[in-house]
Design brief:
Layout (H helix, E strand, L loop, with lengths): L4 H18 L2 H21 L1 H4 L5 H18 L8 H18 L5 H22 L5 H7 L4 H32 L14 H12 L3 H12 L4 H8 L3 H26 L1
Length: about 260
């Protein structure tokens, strides 16, 4: 028998209908096995958010728990693609897990603000972007302390940005009858346009880093090598870009209220 897309869809619907009726664990396990790839994809994409607060195994376990919960709560009659619904819920659960780890975002944010102010001051004074060691020296920090501040601030910015996207996607999902773009990070054309407009307002270096990180899926250390700048500087550029993008999305959400 040759399986067509229509046949596959019918089989999937039958599987969901059987589970909804019987709640058979064996059927649920089949569904988990079919969609576990989503957890791995999401864990990989969110590596920048959690890599300093948890390891991959913990994140994947959290994602599988979320997947099981999503399967139990999924309503086939809502006319929403399961992949779309599951992706948003799994991302949200992973972000919530990371948010609950033992760290102090306010201190991290204040420390990074101090670093950024020092960098701006030195840029004006020197007529060029200062090197990391010059910023550290200006703040009377050793390089370990300096790099730690930049690294923590980057994690904070990524977490805040991903958390906002997750909240926005979920809100849009709950007020929609379904989506046609489950493969996209953003699930609505309107929100996608807002993000696109925000990216266009970034400076050229920020645009390049965002493109290489999200579109080409390069690691920050690889981007640093390509641009011939330090890992700390790449983290600063990425953090600054995320903060600007987050501002654009928050403004969009505020205007919709």
């Amino acid at each position: 028998m040759i399986l067509t897309e229509k046949t596959t869809t019918v089989d999937e619907n039958y599987l969901w209908e059987q589970y909804a009726f019987t709640k058979d664990i064996k059927i649920r396990n089949q569904i988990i096995e079919k969609y576990s790839y989503l957890v791995k994809i999401i864990a990989l994409k969110l590596r920048g958010v959690y890599q300093q607060y948890g390891d991959v195994e913990d994140i994947v376990n959290e994602g599988i728990i979320a997947l099981i919960d999503v399967i139990d709560k999924f309503d086939l009659s809502k006319n929403i693609k399961f992949e779309t619904y599951a992706t948003i819920r799994i991302r949200g659960s992973i972000i919530d897990y990371v948010r609950k780890q033992d760290w102090i975002p306010r201190k991290v944010k204040n420390d990074f603000k101090t670093v950024k102010e020092a960098q701006d001051e030195l840029t004006f004074k020197l007529g060029r972007e200062p090197e990391d060691k010059e910023v550290a020296s200006h703040l009377k920090l050793d390089m370990y302390e300096y790099n730690n501040i930049v690294r923590n601030a980057h994690g904070t910015a990524m977490l805040s940005f991903e958390e906002l996207l997750s909240e926005t996607n979920l809100r849009e999902l709950e007020t929609s009858s379904g989506y046609e773009l489950p493969e996209q990070e953003l699930e609505t054309k309107e929100l996608y346009e807002i993000l696109k407009d925000s990216i266009n307002k970034l400076n050229e270096k920020e645009k390049l880093v965002v493109s290489l990180y999200y579109k080409e899926e390069l690691k920050l250390k690889d981007i640093a090598e390509i641009l011939n700048i330090s890992n700390s500087r790449i983290s600063q550029i990425h953090t600054s870009a995320l903060q600007k993008l987050e501002h654009g999305i928050r403004q969009y959400m505020y205007d919709k209220k």
